[in-house]
Amino acid sequence: MEAPCADPAASGWPAASRIDWSVPWLQPYAARGRLLAKRAADIGVVSALADEQPAERRFVPQQALAPDTAYEQFIDEAAAIPTRENAHDFFNALVWLHLPQAKRRMNRLQATEIRRLGVGSRRGRVRDALTLLDENGAILQAPPPLWDALRQRDWRRLFVGERSLWSQARLQIVGHALLEQLLVAPRKSLTAHVLLAPEPHGPSLAMGDDRALAAALDPDWLASKPFTPLPVLGVPGWCAQNQNFCFYDDSDVFRPRRSPESRTTHVPAAPHPA
């Protein structure tokens, strides 16, 4: 496992050369990511991103962020994204490059909430939802039977009974912390929070539709926490071990949907990265 943050004075980020771009969760990012990773291994993440300006934002070294300024507020006001020499910020940059309008919208909403409420010990419902999407979110396009099983957390039906339908589904991870964890510490418990799109879209947005995703991010809707959990290594083709259906017998990960009577105490659906 790599160090959380490489020496900012180093001329390159060698760990970038070890990223396996053939894994399914990196396919939406592979074409551009492979090239940027090669450059990052040689000259560092920030230098590799020097010519990239998603949504009129530029990538700058982490040191540009003043100690008394909130990260999201700085990005909104300075049009600059503080970036460290590590996997977490490399994947954040990749998502910015692929979904610039959605990321700008998320950032603007975060900054607006910070100006309105300040930075306290609690983010509030809107910022909590934005953080969940930004760090751990995913977009799913799938046939209705898969959506029904997912929302019911009927894991056997989702991954075994309706397994053949996954050939018609597409899952894109947009949370950069989850992409990082899949690189440095892949494990069965890694869980995406799949966005449940508002009407009139139905449960899913068109894959890769940056403009539609940005337009859907309404503060009142986000405050309702419109997500459902999905242990991503349960997806057919995402983990060789799940070809043996005993993989899904792990009740610590594939937990049933709680009844209304059991919801007085919060229990997360499955562990997820910080």
List keywords for this structure.
DUF3025 domain-containing protein, 274 residues, 11 helices, two-stranded parallel sheet, DUF3025, alpha/beta, globular, single chain, disordered N terminus
Folded structure, characterized:
By secondary structure, this protein is α/β, with parallel strands linked by helices. It has a domain at 14-129. It contains eleven helices and six strands. The protein has helices at residues 30-43, 45-48, 71-78, 87-98, 100-117, 125-136, 144-152, 155-161, 176-184, 210-216, 219-223; strands at 58-61, 80-83, 137-141, 170-173, 191-195, 227-231. The strands form two sheets. Strands 4-3-5-6 form a four-stranded mixed beta sheet. The protein has a two-stranded parallel sheet with strand order 1-2. Helix 5 (100-117) runs antiparallel to helix 6. It is globular and about 50 Å long. The chain starts with 29 loop residues before the first helix and ends in a 43-residue tail after the last strand.
Produce a short descriptive summary.
The protein has helices spanning 30-43, 45-48, 71-78, 87-98, 100-117, 125-136, 144-152, 155-161, 176-184, 210-216, 219-223, and strands at 58-61, 80-83, 137-141, 170-173, 191-195, 227-231. It is α/β, with parallel strands linked by helices and 274 residues long. The protein has a domain at 14-129.
